[in-house]
Structures are given as C-alpha cells and as structure tokens.
C-alpha cells in the first residue's frame, strides 16, 4: 500500500511551500556562471585561522561548557555581551531581553509561530525578504505589502493600508521590516520615517519585527537609530545575526525584545530544538568580547565597499541609461528596474544565463504580483573582476534587448 | 502603554508551555547535589582533543565549505554516510531519504508541524519522553498514552485504544516511540511486539515516529531491528542523533524517511532556520567516516555500562525490597516504582533534596495524570562514587519513610 501523504499532512502544511528563487539556484549557482544571485557573504573573508585557534582554546579551557547542551535561552556570557551591544546602540536591554537562536531565520520563525494566526494580515515591505515572507506564510499569515522608495518604507501608505484593513474588520498585529540596506532593494528607511512608523505602531498596536542582518555593513555615513532604540513600550522584536558579520556556518543569531515575549519564545524553542549549538555560541562570544569581530567588521566594510563601488560603476558604464538601479549605503544588494518596454526580468535572466551571468528576477519578493520588471543584484560574492565582466556582458545583452524591443515597437 | 501580550499571542501559543521537569532543574542541578535527574551525556567522555584537531583540519582544507551556509537538506557527504549507516542497520535508505536537523528534537518539531492538526489524538508511550510530548502538544496534538511493561509498548492495549478512538470518530495518524532504552523507563520493545505494532500501523494507517537516541548505547546483547528496518511502505520517520553518542553541543541529528515526507520537511526547515550549522555537520561527518565515532561508542558502552551496573547494584543493596526498578540493557535511565503506601515521589524528591540527592518524579512523563509513585533515575552523569553515595543516602531515606508510613498505617 502506498502512503497518501497529501491526506496525512496537517492543514498548516499546505502553507509550507518552497520559494520561487530557490528553484532557480540550481541554474544560477553553477561554477561557470558569474552569479549576482545568491546573497551569501564572501567566504574569502571568513577568519578560518582565528576560528581554529579560538575553538582549540575553548575546548582546552572548558571542554564541558563548549560541547554540552546549553540552557535554551543561550550562553549567559554571550547574552550579556549582546545586551551590552544593544545598550551601546541605544536600546535599554538587559540579559533577560536576549535569547540566542539558530540564525535570525529561526528568530523569525519562532516569533511568527507565537504571534500569527492563520488568515491574519501581516504588514511587510514591498518588495520584501523572501525568507521573511516564507516564515509569515508558513503560519498562515497573509503578507500585505507597503511600498518603498529610496527613503525606505512609505508611512503614509502604511497608514492608509491600516485604515483600509480596519474598515474590513482586520487588525494586523505585526510589521516585518529590514530597515537597513534592505533585502532586496538596498534601501535604508530614514529616521524621520522610522519615527512615524513607530507612532503608527503605537496607535495601531503593532509589533515591529526589526530584522537587521546588514546594519553593521555600512559603507558611508551612519545608519539611523534602530526601531528598538526608538521604542519605549517593548513593541519591537529585534533580530540580530552573526551570519553576515562573521560566518553563517555556526547558525547563531539573537532576538532582543520585551521579557514576556522572550520568555514565551524560550518555551517555544525548548520544543523546537532544545538549544542552539554551544560551540558556535562560545566562538561568537569569545571573538566578540575580545574585540576581534569589531575589527573584522571594519575590514569587511572596506572589502564590500569596493565591490559595491565596482558594481555601481559598471552598471553606470555598461547598462543602457533607462535601466535604473539603487545606490545602497551598505549591505549586499542593489535593486535594478527595467523599463516596461523590456521583456520581463524572468526572461532577461534566461538570456543572461546563456551568457553565463545570473541575478534574481523580482517577482519572488512581491507578495501579490508585481516586480516583473525588477531584479536583485548581489555584489557580495563575485570578485571585482567578475563584477566588471558580468555587468559588461549584461550591458551588451540589455542593449540588444532594447534594440529588439525598439524594432518590435516600430513594427507593432 | 503596556503591551497586552496575552491578547497578541496567536491561538497556537496557548499550547506552548514549559515542562514540569524543567522547573525543577534549578533545584536539582546545584553543584552540591548528587543529581540523577538530568539526562545529559557525561561530559568527561567528550573527545575534545580529537574535535580540535579535526576542526583545524577541516578549516585548513576547506574553509568555505566548513563555515558557509549549507543546503537545507544538509551536507551531502554526511547524508551519504548516514544513508549507508541506515542500510547497514537494515533500512533501504538512499541519500534522498535523509535530511540533517538541529538535533532530533528539531526533527520531531518539524514532523509534528507537518502531520498534526490541533485536537488530533497522537499515540505515545506511557510514560513518554517529555520533549516528545512537548512537540506534539505545541502543535495542538493530544497525547494518548499506551502503557508499557518490561517488554516495551503493549500492542493489545494499543489496538483496543485504536478501536475505541475509531468508535469516537477519531483516527490518530501518528505513534511516537522511543523503542530502545526508553526515556524514562529504560525498557526496550521486543521484536515480537514491534512486528505487531508495524502490522497495526498498516491496518490503521499510522505513521511511526521512531526516536532512537540511545540505541547504540547497548550494554548487553543486541537491540531488536528498528521499526524502519521492518517497514516496507515508508511509514516510519526515524530520528537519529549525535547528541548521546558524540556531543550535544553541535546540535546535529537526522531524519530518515519516505521521500515525500523528507521533501516537505526540507521546505519547512527552509523557513524554520535555513540550514543546520555546517561546522557541526562537517565534524560529525569526518569523525563518522574515519571510523573514530564507532570506536568512541565502544568506549562509551564500557563506561556507561559500569555506571548502570553500579546504580543497579546500589539500588539492590540500599533500597527497601518493595521498591522496584527497571534493569535497562542500555541508555541512561532506570525507572523506579514506589509502593502506594509511600508518599508521592514528588514529596520524596523534596526530602531527597534535603539530603543533597536528586532524581525526577514521574508525573511529567504522563499525559493524563499517573506516575505519582514513580521516578526516573539517570546514571549517565554522576561518578561511580557519587552513584554509590547518592543511592545509599536515598536508601536510608526510603527506609525511614517506610517506617513512618508503616506507623501511620498502624495508627490509621
């Protein structure tokens, strides 16, 4: 007898579906392809020797603590360090406000598990981080997109959306945001807009999930104060990550938030996976406390800034002028907008792959259609030389596409 | 304005509650206490030097692969190794049947997320592993206990329960079991009973979640064939773990199961935490493939066998004869049953703590009451000397308790 899995799966399993983008990764991440698709950090920057040294020291000095289960809340010293870090960044956090998670994605998953009922609208940026929307929809939440411009989220439209939902009898409880060097657009929400959003959150009783994996990778000026530092009520759940500023392979991130939320997250994490890996927690803690990671982030900033500059300069030089792209002040991504006269970005990607270059077309970042003529370009992984070569090849392609589109328009 | 978290939490959050036992850990795990409470592996056995050596080698030979994100399914080489291991143990697994998870607890969480609708009955052993019941109830499942005796789960009562539920219009989809050296009882389900349970699973269309953290820690004879090796339909989801046979601090386990289930688990894991930590996966893979861990498990067996023998001998010597205890063939636990004339085990624990000895009283392992006169004793962490001292102190206590109970009965 064969097993009818579809009938056995729980109702909630219907909400758990793969992301469009991942399906393309098998095409975009081949070795012969110059890829601007994946948003991984550059592995050439991983401090391998430092990691070997510290792990050996940790195991020699405290084998038990380094390799045994940890409390579900996480390693006390790491939580203490992170509370201090949050304080230095303007948020009055104590150890009790911090829980360690398996990367900020787990943080997002646990928060959505606790807050979102099936069918509830959840405010997100439009476009939005795909993994964020995935966590929301996997618990039955309905992402409702609020558009962005180069100053970030647009609070006037947010308020209109809240009013409209209220008229329909719906009260969203959550706004999910990547306010610094947003994935996929690279935009940063301005301080002025953050203040308005904070006020809207107060008036409409919204919890803000502030996902900040890229904030430290700031290539010019400073990032505005975080939502959690502007908050006086405990309505911000902040997600921090070591994946972009150190390494992803330890899967260590943290949540900072109000004690009642953190305590409930701790209960949820007990059944989710008991605790995060202690080796990674100790490693992150040691390198953070000794100041190594602050110096490492400074090196990363110089490194990624050169890549960003190279990509923007190449786009300026090689792309037809009607193709627009964002000028991110940090992070990994620039957002490219093609004219409506061009074929959809999905088709452009197929043509680009023939020339051994890849990016991510835009639709996956939109909850309800849209993004057909947009694309995310990541400059984090390709070498400076590949950035120039890849963007040049695409520039040639786009000029051909433009000419063809022009001819078709003339004949049409 | 203070935030009304109870109103903000989703309905499912009501099901997420802490375990009774964890509340006691703050009492039982103080340094001055001889603790038979926690079920952790003995950290003196952690192969620290070996781990340092291998991590240094891995980072030197492939820094990128060791420290970058891995695919959600897990490291290919580790999955290949584990498929081979499952094959050697009689289950026809390929790589496509294996997914790596953050310890078997995450495996349990993801499977429950996919299979259990709120309000559905889920068959469990009685008593049952607390973390297993926690995962089930956190998704709204209702544990329905099937009693055990020294031969393990009792299939005749399982069938009666299934028939009774069917009459009530309920069809459980899942049976969760720790068939080898069960937590908390130490019992192992016999081959004969496994075959009957397998047949019941076929007839009643049950998925068996076979959680096997202790099977390799076998101190005499052999464990019976696993459910997954008896299965020809793909209705067993097997949970394997490195936590007890290697170290818990890397949080690496695996699920072996039918392809449609593994594929859906992979989608759920994408939003749950993207992937498990690559450092731990590579470490487990390397030490498994080079045969180190097989030799390590042999050493652990000798080590834990001596502890088990010491605890059983001390109980034999010091406990009043009317106190019964199980004689586990492996694992970490023995299950102690006090006469009804004694005070409840919860009260005995309070008295034991005054004498600086701890164990876990039984109620937390029962879904619907029961277990008041039972307790779980773990021999995994205490030293041989502490085992003798601790059981002797408890023996003295139990003789006093017995005398007092006898006097009260005479006066009553």
How is this structure best summarized?
The structure is a homodimer of 412-residue chains. Chain A is α/β, with parallel strands linked by helices. Chain A has 2 domains: 5-46 and 294-411, Aspartate Aminotransferase, domain 1, CATH 3.90.1150.10; 68-290, Aspartate Aminotransferase, domain 2 (3-Layer(aba) Sandwich), CATH 3.40.640.10.
What is the strand and helix layout of this fold?
The structure is a homodimer of 412-residue chains.
Chain A: H1 5-8, H2 20-28, E1 34-35, H3 48-61, H4 63-67, H5 76-88, E2 98-101, H6 103-115, E3 121-126, H7 130-138, E4 142-149, E5 152-153, H8 155-167, E6 174-177, H9 191-204, E7 207-211, H10 227-230, E8 236-241, E9 253-256, H11 259-273, H12 278-289, H13 292-318, E10 324-325, E11 333-337, H14 345-354, E12 357-358, E13 360-361, E14 374-378, H15 384-411
Parallel strand pairs in A: 1-12, 3-4, 3-6, 6-7, 7-8
Antiparallel strand pairs in A: 2-9, 4-5, 8-9, 10-11, 11-14, 13-14
Mean pLDDT over all positions of chain A: 95
Q: From N to C, what is the helix and strand string of chain A? A: HHEHHHEHEHEEHEHEHEEHHHEEHEEEH
For the largest interface in this structure, which chains are involved and how many residues does each contribute?
A: A-B, 81 and 81 residues
Q: Radius of gyration of chain A, Cα only, in angstroms?
A: 22 Å
Number of helices of chain A: 15
Poorly predicted runs of chain A: none
Structural class of chain A: alpha/beta
What is the CATH superfamily classification of the largest domain in chain A? Type I PLP-dependent aspartate aminotransferase-like (Major domain)
- Major sheet characteristics of chain A: 8 strands, mixed
What does the oligomeric state look like here?
Answer: homodimer
Q: Beta-strand percentage of chain A?
A: 5-15%
User: Class of the largest domain in chain A in CATH?
Assistant: Alpha Beta
CATH architecture of the largest domain in chain A: 3-Layer(aba) Sandwich
């Amino acid at each position: 007898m064969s097993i009818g899995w579809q009938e056995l799966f729980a109702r909630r399993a219907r909400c758990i579906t793969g992301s469009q983008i991942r399906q393309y990764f098998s095409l975009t991440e081949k070795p012969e392809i110059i890829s601007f698709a994946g948003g991984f950090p550059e592995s050439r920057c991983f401090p391998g020797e430092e990691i070997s040294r510290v792990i050996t020291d940790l195991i020699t000095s405290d084998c038990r603590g380094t390799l045994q289960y940890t409390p579900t809340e996480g390693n006390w010293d790491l939580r203490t360090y992170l509370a201090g870090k949050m304080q230095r960044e303007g948020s009055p956090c104590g150890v009790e406000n911090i829980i360690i998670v398996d990367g900020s994605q787990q943080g997002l998953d646990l928060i959505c598990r606790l807050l979102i009922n099936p069918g509830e609208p959840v405010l997100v940026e439009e476009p939005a981080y795909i993994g964020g929307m995935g966590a929301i929809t996997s618990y039955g939440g309905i992402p409702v997109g609020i558009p962005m411009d180069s100053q970030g989220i647009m609070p006037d439209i947010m308020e209109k959306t809240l009013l409209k939902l209220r008229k329909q009898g719906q009260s969203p409880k959550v706004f999910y945001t990547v306010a610094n060097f947003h994935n996929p657009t690279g935009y940063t929400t301005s301080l002025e807009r953050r203040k308005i959003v904070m006020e809207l959150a107060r008036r409409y009783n919204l919890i803000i999930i502030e996902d900040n994996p890229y904030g430290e990778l700031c290539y010019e000026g400073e990032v505005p104060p975080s939502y959690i530092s502007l908050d006086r009520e405990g309505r911000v759940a902040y997600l921090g990550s070591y994946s972009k500023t150190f390494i992803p392979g330890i899967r260590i991130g943290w949540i900072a938030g109000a004690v009642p939320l953190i305590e409930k997250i701790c209960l949820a994490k007990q059944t989710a996976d008991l605790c995060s890996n202690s080796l990674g927690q100790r490693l992150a803690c040691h390198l953070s406390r000794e100041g190594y990671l602050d110096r490492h982030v400074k090196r990363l900033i110089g490194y990624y800034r050169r890549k960003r500059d190279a990509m923007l300069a190449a786009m300026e030089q090689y792309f037809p002028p009607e193709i627009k792209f964002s000028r991110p002040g940090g992070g990994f991504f620039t957002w490219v907008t093609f004219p409506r006269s061009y074929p959809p970005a999905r088709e452009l990607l197929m043509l680009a792959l023939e020339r051994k270059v890849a990016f991510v077309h835009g639709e996956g970042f939109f909850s309800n259609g849209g993004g057909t003529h947009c694309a995310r370009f990541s400059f984090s992984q390709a070498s400076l030389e590949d950035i120039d070569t890849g963007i040049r090849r695409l520039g040639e392609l786009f000029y051909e596409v433009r000419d063809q589109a022009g001819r078709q328009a003339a004949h049409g």
